[in-house]
Amino acid sequence: MTVKDMLGRSGVVSREDALKILYEHFLLSDPPREEVSISEALGRVLAEGISSPINLPEFDRSTMDGYAVRSTDTFGAAESRPVLLAVVGDILMGTLPDRPIAKGETMKIATGGALPEGSDAVVMFEHAQPINAASIEVVKPVAPFENVVQTGDDIKKGELILNRGHRMRPQDMSALASVGITHISVMRRPRVAIISTGNEIVPADSVPGPGQIRDSNSYNLEGLISQAGGVPVKKGIIRDEYAGLRETLNAAISDSDLVLMTGGSSVGTADMTARVINDAGHPGVLVHGVSIRPGKPLAIGLVGSPHGHVPVFGLPGHPAAVSICFEIFVRPLLCRMSGEIPNPILEGVPPFRTIKARLARSIASSPGREDHVRVTLEMRDDVLWARPVFGASGLISTLVKAVGTVVIPATKIGIETGEEVEVRLF
Amino acid sequence: MTVKDMLGRSGVVSREDALKILYEHFLLSDPPREEVSISEALGRVLAEGISSPINLPEFDRSTMDGYAVRSTDTFGAAESRPVLLAVVGDILMGTLPDRPIAKGETMKIATGGALPEGSDAVVMFEHAQPINAASIEVVKPVAPFENVVQTGDDIKKGELILNRGHRMRPQDMSALASVGITHISVMRRPRVAIISTGNEIVPADSVPGPGQIRDSNSYNLEGLISQAGGVPVKKGIIRDEYAGLRETLNAAISDSDLVLMTGGSSVGTADMTARVINDAGHPGVLVHGVSIRPGKPLAIGLVGSPHGHVPVFGLPGHPAAVSICFEIFVRPLLCRMSGEIPNPILEGVPPFRTIKARLARSIASSPGREDHVRVTLEMRDDVLWARPVFGASGLISTLVKAVGTVVIPATKIGIETGEEVEVRLF
What does the pLDDT look like over B137-163, one tens digit per residue? Predict the structure, then answer.
């Protein structure tokens, strides 16, 4: 059976076209919101922009250990012409000074202390000489607000601190705490269903009978989904029979935001998966076959549900194909579905760790096909080399031995030994 | 008070020396182990190497849809001289063929199917012509084991799959599942106590009185610790008084693997923190003052406990100093304490995401001091520029606006506008 997409297209498309077709049809809707404590907010995406309810700091604070002064009192001070000031108090941390200071007066203050009324600057200890317990000589002038953080200097009341769609970093948790916001509204994490298919697949904790193998792709996917900020939901191992697959897929669509089916490396079962996706709802299969290696038999569909469109992927059964298809298609999609609005200033910055290396051995590729080659690294003669890990994409060991991948673009017919490549690290 | 380390040293040391002193004194001990399901093992560190209890695959499998054959039967086959074979069965997935094949016989097989006894290769569908339901003509020869993954080709029985000290990635979860290992022994995550100090600090969810501010550093640390694979344990906000700090530190040492104290930006409270660390146990404070900015007042100590040495950090109170000191000192230490044995082939590869940019504005630095400058990025005339975010290290907003940091090494007195820099992204 050849599955055609809703536009009557069939056959293999490029990676770029596959993504374009998917995003053309997928109407992204806002994820539901939930409230979390900022302590649990790391990596979560803000459902709304957050403005500060207060000025930060809420009072003028000293940035030095020293003496709070009226700056005008110090103008003209010098080693040769020190200014005498009366020490009228010692400001305790966490309190407001109990009285203002007048002309010619000062108070001792520590870093972070609140400036007394009447003062507008702090003289560092190094620039003041105690004469006795009640007076000091200042030997250097301070400008108004020198060594002082003024009210609202850090964050102004009403100022937007974090944008809607921002993914929370540790310092963001800190900033919200500092203005008293301890609970925030975030987008719910996308729930991603995993359906393992194949008559030969048995659970990983069971003993396979003759001709059977253990389910393993679902564990790879579980890890990849968690890394991408989604919530993996395993739907079990389903036989390659239309009715059972269709029923499981329907159930997954009803309670998940995205569905990944894995298995079916043979032509017959791959087509079965595509047919089940196509029949599950409109628009059905959009892409069946992408000119990438590994991953060519990939099917991408979109199925309507009461809670919006649910993307469904029919992933090839080979372990390396699962990883590559996830990285190329599923991870960026999950990122969009999470509600994240990427920081525009990071546009063009790869969202993963990369390193430049020289290819240790030439690799051939077919024009029109994008190859994702698993590599390991080695340092030789002070040069970092990327060495392809050989083995069929069906071997899990090649993925375990690799530390990353190198892409041969569809426009190239290969990469020569010694050429510089960018390794995308796992 | 000047705190001296156990060797009588005092004063500010370089970043490199601070790390050297710490690692010289810190006898790393193996973390306790715990057992986890492979589904929960992402990012965990293996407490022991794992070898395969089986050959993978456990039987010879086909890598193609086609016909299982005796390769010798196909030798000499060509379009002009096809070889006739009798189709004696159709191999069902997940079963072993019920009979061997003899000379002149074949069976239909799908990708992943088990080869029947007597066969040693698979002819692709494309190279076979069905004559009738019971026979085919093969038009191209296959070599022995062509289109076949032999028993143990992926992973051999007894082969080491993953090393002790390896940090689990998604594909590793998959590899273990495929050989039937579903529970593994991992190192317990380091427990990291956070003690907030300062008489002016109140909980983030309370309303500060005059001169008070909210605890915020502990939230930054909570996020940083989680990112680094540790378990943050908040020990509350403690006043700057010797007895209370000492008691809280003792309690933290008894049930944590590492302790972070934060606050005390004033000279007096910073010294108090260092004194409490020094008195808590042998060897006490090792470093007090590091020539980095921000972060200079950092104190690093080591305190003996019944469960081994516990590193204790007296972190400066400024938000940016907290982040920088964590990145430079705490994150790499936590990595070692987690039991991780870094993959030697990734030696020299930064463990964080970096990008090259040109500095948008020159920055001056003092020789002998390593500066960590917060920057944001901008694309202008097709060039990526790193622009310093101005503001004192006491301002949390500078950390929120920044997307990473640029380091000015201690050997330089600054970086000029337009110079290429490496930005470490948050």
Answer: 999 999 999 999 999 999 999 999 999
Q: How far apart are CA B123 and CA B116, in angstroms?
A: 14
**Whether pLDDT at B41 is above 60:** yes
Which residues on B lie below 8 Å from A63 (Cβ)?
392, 394
Digit-coded pLDDT (tens) for B106-149: 999 999 999 999 999 999 999 999 999 999 999 999 999 999 99
Contact B42 A227 (CB under 8 A): yes
The answer to whether A143 faces chain B, any CB pair under 8 Å, is no
Which residues from chain B sit within 8 angstroms of residue A207, using beta carbons?
Answer: 180
Domain A15-32+189-342, what fold? Molybdenum Cofactor Biosythetic Enzyme; Chain A (3.40.980)
Which residue, among A216, A265, A393, would best test binding to B if mutated, counting the most B CBs under 10 Å from its CB?
A216
Query: Quick one: CATH architecture of B15-32+188-341?
Result: 3-Layer(aba) Sandwich (3.40)
pTM of the model: 0.95
pLDDT digits (tens, 9 = 90+) for A381-426: 899 999 999 887 789 999 999 999 999 999 999 999 999 999 999 9
User: CA A388, A390, A394: angle at the middle one, nearest 5?
Assistant: 125
Its CATH architecture, for the domain A35-55+162-187, is Alpha-Beta Complex (3.90)
* Residue A400 forms contact with B (CB below 8 Å): yes
What is the C-alpha to C-alpha distance for residues B313 and B246, in angstroms, rounded to an integer?
Answer: 14
pLDDT surpassing 90 at residue B10? no
Test mutation, B60, B67, B162, B171, chain A, max A CBs within 10 A: B171
Which B residues, 344 through 363, put their C-beta within 8 Å of a C-beta on chain A?
345-350, 352-353, 355
Distance, CA of A415 to CA of A288 (rounded, Å): 28
Subunit contact B227:A170, Cβ cutoff 8 A: yes
Amino acid at A43: G
Domain-by-domain residue ranges, chain B?
Answer: 15-32+188-341, 33-56+153-187, 61-149, 354-425
Supply the CATH classification number for the domain A61-149. Answer: 2.170.190.11
CATH 2.30.29.220 fits A354-425, yes or no: no
Cα dist. B26→A45, A410, B119 in Å? 39, 52, 61
